[in-house]
Prior knowledge:
The chain is α+β, with helices and mostly antiparallel strands. The chain folds into two domains: 19-196, Beta-Lactamase (2-Layer Sandwich), CATH 3.30.450; 207-261, Orthogonal Bundle (Arc Repressor Mutant, subunit A). The protein has eleven helices and five strands, in the order H-H-H-E-E-H-H-H-E-E-E-H-H-H-H-H. The chain has helices at 19-31, 47-56, 58-74, 98-106, 117-120, 124-131, 177-196, 207-217, 222-229, 233-247, 252-261; strands at residues 81-86, 91-95, 135-138, 151-158, 164-172. The protein has a five-stranded antiparallel β-sheet with strand order 2-1-5-4-3, sandwiched between helices. Helix 9 (222-229) packs across helix 10 (233-247). The longest helix is centred in the C-terminal third of the chain and has 20 residues, at 177-196. The protein is elongated.
Amino acid sequence: MWKSVQYLQTADAPDLIPPDLLAESYERCRMFDVPEDQKRLGDALGEGETRNFLQQNGRLASYGHLVVEEYRGDIKGSHDLFILTNAEARILGLWSHPEIVAGAAEINLRPGASLSEGSAGTNAVALALAAQGPVVLKGKEHLCRIFHDWMCAAAPIISSDGDLVGCLDISAAEGPIYEKLALTRSIAREIGRLVGNKRTTRFHITMRQREVLTLFAQGASYKGIAKELGISIKTVEEHLDAVRAKMGTKSRRACIKKAMEIGAL
């Protein structure tokens, strides 16, 4: 799945999972009789069941898609696989380069499939949900061989109401693990904020759009914002245009005022 993808090598991050917790997870998986040499995930919903599952989790799935695509738009060319699950580790969405998503589907890694320990063995999503904290799992730390060439960073999604609602995982063959972990945590926090904030339901203001709008409110120029956030001037313009359209305003002043009224700034 990852053979055609090339990454720059960086120094390994320190392990975030204590050996005793990994050992406990392995033991639970063996009690579940999870086959270490399985070639496909076994616990996946049928087509109709998956449709119902996605509808039942529509709010989380919609916000997850919105935020992940927002971030992916700023890191064009990335072949990382973004995976969103609910609080029971069942997949709501996957986003990446088409060939990566197709490769994932070959092992039944798709919406409706489960990444619980009983189905997928020891993996970053299951551990992050259990610990309710960020997790990095590398290569053979996964119980099942189908994940042995994966490096995964996962973070639980906690709503602004304090509820555990899901998990966000970024998986790849290799690469800068510190950056992946930081990105995973940022996306998870943003999804949680949106899910728990009823005032943002209509406008869908993402973290990056809020950052751009805040800098505009502080008087920064397009060029200054682009430099501050590490994005292009065209991307800055696109973010601001998107916010204006969502809020139904024509001027920057009106856009800022409305954002403040709904708590987006």
